[in-house]
Design a protein that fits this description.
Elements: E1 16-19, H1 25-36, E2 40-45, H2 48-55, E3 62-66, H3 72-86, E4 90-95, H4 113-129, E5 133-142, H5 166-190, E6 195-200, H6 209-217, H7 221-232, H8 236-239, H9 241-248, E7 257-262, E8 267-272, H10 282-296
Parallel strand pairs: 1-2, 1-4, 2-3, 4-5, 5-6, 6-7
Antiparallel strand pairs: 7-8
Helix pairs in contact: 3-4, 4-5, 4-10, 5-10, 6-7
Length: 303
């Protein structure tokens, strides 16, 4: 698949897709390509103005849905809206939205911001949408090279007992994404559910994550971080390829992890990615699954 590009995305007519964080970066590119190939795409956004601007850049059948992953009330509302508007028929869920290395902040529900948005919000959304995922549907969850940064403190996800470190918090949230994707695959198989749960990462890609992270600490750092980011990263069109491949390629199987093929998985066409031992630990994944259900108050599906 080392020559695979967006032009190789199969015909998506008749498929319905939800992409979170679709107002910019990887999410917008994913929505743009899938709608261009014929899919009906729901673009989840938090900011109305940015959502409308993003929609103007997508040709095809695309619609907006309001979603704030930092607020479980919004997550529940969005899931109910999607189920109603799609008639409980969803072929692909792309859990793409995320924040990176933010100062210590809390979500509306009191969770540490990064674990709250990157993992807990997406896990709750996935479970709430499970009845709409028709046989053969795919759930694509975005992880990161940063998942290799260490382990996961399942009993202290919100840094209530540990000193807060922004980089550690981001790393654990991306590890949680990968653990969740693989556990969802295991549980779907055990339940006999026709569901393909996979993970992907974009390598080093020119998105808003780095500038936003810098801007959250000191506004003046934003433009400098944006320029530096462009010098060492690949473009969004290339960065979105692993998640596009995970969403559409016929040879993708549940439990796989996809990322760029070249330069230590930092750039290039999609390929099978390296997954850390911590991410492949089923015991940790099971504990995270149960803890996520406790924190969110959402019943896991498959149970």
């Amino acid at each position: 698949m080392t020559r695979w590009s967006g032009a190789d995305v199969p015909d998506q007519r008749g498929r319905t897709v939800l992409v979170t964080g679709a107002n910019s970066g990887l999410g917008l590119e994913t929505a743009r390509v899938l709608a261009g190939r014929g899919a009906t795409v729901f673009m989840a956004y938090r900011d109305p103005e940015r959502g409308r601007c993003a929609l103007e850049r997508v040709a095809g059948s695309a619609f907006l849905v309001t979603l704030d992953l930092a607020d479980l009330t919004s997550v529940r509302r969005a899931a109910a809206e999607i189920r109603e508007r799609t008639g409980d028929v969803l072929d692909v869920l792309v859990n793409n939205a995320g924040v990176m290395a933010t100062p210590r902040r809390r979500t509306a529900d009191g969770f540490e911001l990064q674990i709250g948005i990157n993992h807990l919000g997406h896990a709750a959304l996935t479970w709430l949408l499970a009845p709409a995922l028709r046989p053969g549907a795919r759930v694509v969850t975005l992880s990161s090279l940063a998942h290799r940064g260490g382990g996961l403190a399942v009993d202290d996800l919100n840094f209530d007992r540990r000193p807060y470190n922004a980089v550690t918090a981001y790393s654990q949230s991306k590890l949680a994404n990968l653990l969740f994707a693989l556990e969802l695959d295991r549980r779907a198989r055990a339940a006999g559910r026709e569901l393909v749960s996979v993970a992907a990462h974009p390598g080093l890609t020119d998105t808003e994550l780095v500038p936003n992270s810098a801007r959250s600490r000191l506004p003046l750092l934003g433009p400098l971080a944006k320029l530096g980011n462009k010098l060492i990263t690949q473009g969004v069109r290339s960065g979105a390829l692993p998640q596009l491949y995970a969403s559409t390629a016929p040879d993708v199987s549940g439990g796989e992890y996809l990322g760029p093929a070249w330069l230590a998985e930092t750039r290039g066409a999609p390929a099978r990615a390296w997954c850390s031992g911590a991410a492949r630990d089923p015991e940790t994944a099971a504990r995270l699954w149960e803890r996520t259900a406790e924190l969110t108050g959402v019943t896991p599906d498959p149970a």
